[in-house]
Amino acid sequence: MNFLVVNPWIYDFAAYDFWLKPLGLLYISEVLTYLGHNVTFVDLLDRHDKDLIAKSPPKDKKYGTGKFYNESVEKPAILKNIPRKFKRYGLPLKLFESKLETINKQNKIDAILVGITLTYWYYGGEKTIEILRNIFPSTPIFLGGVYSTLYTEHAENNFSKFKVNIFPGTGIFPLKKVLELLNEELTKLNNFNWFEEIDLTYDFYDSYLTYVVLISSVGCPFHCTYCVTPKMWKFQYRSIDKIINNIEYILKKRPYVKDVVFFDDAFLLRKDIKELLKALSTFNVRYHLPNGIHARRIDDEIALLLKKANFRTIKLGYESYDFNIQKGTGFKVTNEDLVKAVTSLKNAGFDMNDVYAYVLVNLPFQDKENVIQAVDFCHSLGIRVNLNEFTPIPGTVEYNELIKKNVISPNIDPLLLNNTIIPYWSNFGLSIEDLEEVKRYTKSKYSD
Ligand code: SF4
Asked: Which of 20, 121, 149, 448 makes the best surface tag, with the fewest CB within 10 Å?
């Protein structure tokens, strides 16, 4: 069969290409290829898309990150009172339409797959599917991803106008359901450990890649009260040989790639992490860990191995200075853990401009002093801070508490749970003034 797989636009108040690649859709496309199907892949967020760069050459920033092409758009009605510009990030509309027209002429597309990650990005998915439906009026469209999994009913109601089939779930479960519905042969997927067997080849891109993103593990053994990862995934890690072969494959085809990003939620928690780090050190690339890694796991030996392998960006999951918050939200880290980890990273020779701690802002009923304490503590250790604005995610303890206390409704439009705008309407967490003050304070701390 001929599948068209589309990574949708982002419609948001802000978005930046901090190593964003549609991993779920890439895995699905690899599995379809493994099964012998043809895949046409359109990534609307590809900053180096060949047609886009003719119109708007991308400016790459540090380690291959950069701004998405964007255009201001009208806000959906529910966001009309938010005093900020709303934008569509990704390929211009006309360019997307002309790509689809070309694809439509070249091949008969049998099915279209779209995935939406962040729940409050469903609007970008909707706008993308509206265009797809215009050009492919009768082709079945299937929607999966985190939004469809956490907000299945909302997705079914919202996308029924485009005759979209919603396929919730993680891994290849939704794909199997889609293939079943299309009466396709599935025996090759019996007892198939897709995470172990499938490489992310990046062969679906014909554009220049400033970085590649991989995952060496899925899931996380911790259970933080604000995080949905452990609810969605069982902790599993890929064998070292497979990871190394995957990188070898990519670098053989694209020897120019200098930045390899691991998007794991629990990169350091595998038992054989030291062996993995030693094996990774054989490649001449820079590695980055943009998701909060576990500070408790970093000792002198791990820090040295990370340094030897040429890891650069390190983001430590810290979240709060307050012991009660640390303990009450999952106890993944303490202040002592952070001090020990930072000391080891310093001793190993890390550039402290590349070492960050995530600090959670706007947790229910948190005050600004609480955030400022965490910022001050990180600053005193000589590391940088990423303020991570809280959003309640269905299935988490924090979300359920807010529902129980009638602070939010279970029928809330996910657009309102965009962390950028929560303080504009909610009465939990910080006011917008306090949030702005905390942001200014953090910026001023690091301005010298
Ligand atoms: S340690 Fe990180 S990934 Fe694991 S549950 Fe906590 S926040 Fe989620």
From this structure: 448
- pLDDT score of 19 more than 90: yes
Q: Is 295 in the pocket of ligand 1 (CB under 6 A)?
A: no
| Closest ligand 1 atom number to CA of residue 294 | 1
Q: Which of 374, 289, 366, 389 is nearest to 338 (CA)?
A: 374
Q: Is 229 in the pocket of ligand 1 (CB under 6 A)?
A: yes
Nearest residue (by CA) to ligand 1, atom 6, is 224
In the CATH scheme, what architecture does the domain 2-189 have? 3-Layer(aba) Sandwich (3.40)
CATH architecture of the region 211-445: Alpha-Beta Barrel (3.20)
In whole angstroms, give the CA distance from residue 407 to residue 6: 36
Pairwise CA distance, residues 290 & 23, whole Å: 15
- CA-to-CA distance for 293 and 195, rounded, in angstroms? 21
Same fold, 2-189 and 211-445: no
Residue 391 beta carbon below 6 angstroms from any ligand 1 atom: no
**What's the CA gap between 112 and 29, in Å, rounded?**
11
The region of weakest confidence among 173-182, 232-241, 426-435 is 426-435
- Ligand 1: centre distance to CA 426 (Å): 25
What spacing in Å lies between the alpha carbon of 220 and ligand 1's midpoint? 6
How far, in Å, is the centroid of ligand 1 from the Cα of 116?
A: 21
Bridge partners of residue 70, in order along the sequence: 89
Is the CB–ligand 1 distance for residue 265 below 6 Å?
Answer: yes
Spatial neighbors of 344 by CB under 8 A, at least 6 apart, are: 298, 299, 300, 302, 303
- CA atoms of 378 and 359, how far apart (whole Å): 9
Closest CA to 218 of 194, 202, 241: 194
List, for residues 292-331, the tens digit of each pLDDT value: 999 999 999 999 999 999 999 999 999 999 999 999 999 9
**Strands 111-115 and 141-144, sheet pairing:** parallel
Q: Which atom of ligand 1 is nearest to the CA of 265?
A: 3
Q: Where are the domains of the chain?
A: 2-189, 211-445
Q: Which atom of ligand 1 is nearest to the CA of 332?
A: 1
- Is the pLDDT at 1 greater than 80? The verdict is yes
* Cα–Cα dist 78/122, whole Å: 14
Task: Give pLDDT, residue 447.
Answer: 87
How many Å apart are CA 88 and CA 15, to the nearest integer?
Answer: 9
> Residue 448 pLDDT > 80, yes or no?
no
Asked if residue 435 has pLDDT above 90, the reply is: yes
